[in-house]
């Protein structure tokens, strides 16, 4: 007897680089320094750059980029920009944390919602786009007027054609009425 089985499985695999990062993150400072020394010894392409030299290179890059931009800051201004106190981060206005708080600077704006058209209005606008004779246009209005809330035709097409002929003296062949209904 034949049988059909379906199996769904998920498998999560770490990349070698992710495994290395994970191992390095678990190391304490001393172990990390030892690991770095070990890698420097094993890999001849790697070289150790003293921290002072790295900082000097970063400062040179920063100064050249500032010169390119045309912005020059003195070192005092730079140090001032980097020093923050706890008061800088504290909010003097505790009311700002309440959900109904409205800042004085903020303007209250409502999102404009588009006007919703009913089904009858949409169908009437589509009917106007058709290039119809006045008789067929009137038939279209009658058809749209006889559509119920659920979008179904409440009266048969044959009855609508008969009513138009009887009350408004508009005679339209049934096949033309059916063609208009399908448009």
What features would you describe in this structure?
With 183 residues, the protein is mainly alpha-helical. The chain folds into 2 domains: 16-93, no CATH class; 119-182, no CATH class. 54% of the residues lie in helices and 0% in strands. The protein has 9 helices and no strands. Helix 6 packs antiparallel against helix 7 and helix 7 (134-145) crosses helix 9. The protein is elongated and about 105 Å long. The mean pLDDT is 79.
Present the secondary structure layout.
Blueprint (H helix, E strand, L loop, with lengths): L15 H11 L2 H14 L8 H19 L5 H8 L3 H4 L29 H11 L4 H12 L11 H11 L6 H9 L1
Helix pairs in contact: 6-7, 7-9
Features:
183 residues, mainly alpha, 2 domains, 54% helix
């Amino acid at each position: 007897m034949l049988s059909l089985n379906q199996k769904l499985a998920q498998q999560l695999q770490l990349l070698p680089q992710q495994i290395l990062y994970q191992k390095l993150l678990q190391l304490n400072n001393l172990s990390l320094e030892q690991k770095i020394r070990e890698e420097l010894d094993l890999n001849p392409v790697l070289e150790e750059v003293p921290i002072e030299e790295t900082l000097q290179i970063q400062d040179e890059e920063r100064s050249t980029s500032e010169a390119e931009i045309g912005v020059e800051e003195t070192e005092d201004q730079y140090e001032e920009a980097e020093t923050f106190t706890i008061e800088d981060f504290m909010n003097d206005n505790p009311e700002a944390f309440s959900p109904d708080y409205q800042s004085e600077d903020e303007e209250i704006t409502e999102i404009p919602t588009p006007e919703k058209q009913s089904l009858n209005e949409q169908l009437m606008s589509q009917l106007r786009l058709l290039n119809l004779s006045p008789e067929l246009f009137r038939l279209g209005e009658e058809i749209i007027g006889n559509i119920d809330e659920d979008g179904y035709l409440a009266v048969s097409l044959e009855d609508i054609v008969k009513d138009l002929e009887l009350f408004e003296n508009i005679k339209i062949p049934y096949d033309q009425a059916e063609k208009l209904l399908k448009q």
